[in-house]
Design a protein that fits this description.
It is a single chain. By secondary structure, this protein is mainly α. The chain is built from four helices and no strands. The two termini are 14 Å apart.
Length: 109
């Protein structure tokens, strides 16, 4: 499987794990806690597979940038965590950085 496919799976697993982490309430609830542990385990394993063919800096930039944007969107919907204008601008800049890496960087090929 190509490195970017592994990275996509890793990002989805991390987003699921982080969402479950919030729901675990400090690991007080069993099911979300188990989902958190499993999600992070899957995420890190898949990220390690991505790093076999994609440079570590690119993997981490995309992992963190896409993860931040997705978690923020999920938190907005599920937990009603609304961002103020500077927060929205910051998220926009992160998204712009991810797009620049994906569209213009030859390092990701």
């Amino acid at each position: 499987m190509p490195g970017m496919a592994w990275l996509a799976i890793a990002i989805v697993a991390e987003v699921i794990a982080t969402t479950a982490l919030k729901a675990s309430d400090g690991f007080r609830h069993t099911t979300p806690s188990v989902i958190t542990a499993a999600g992070y385990s899957i995420a890190f394993w898949c990220m390690s597979q991505a790093m076999r063919t994609v440079p570590v800096g690119i993997v981490y930039a995309l992992w963190s940038g896409i993860g931040i944007v997705l978690i923020t969107a999920i938190a907005w919907v599920l937990y009603r965590q609304v961002l103020d204008t500077p927060g929205l601008i910051g998220i926009g800049l992160i998204l712009a950085g991810v797009i620049v890496i994906q569209v213009f960087s030859k390092t990701t090929a």
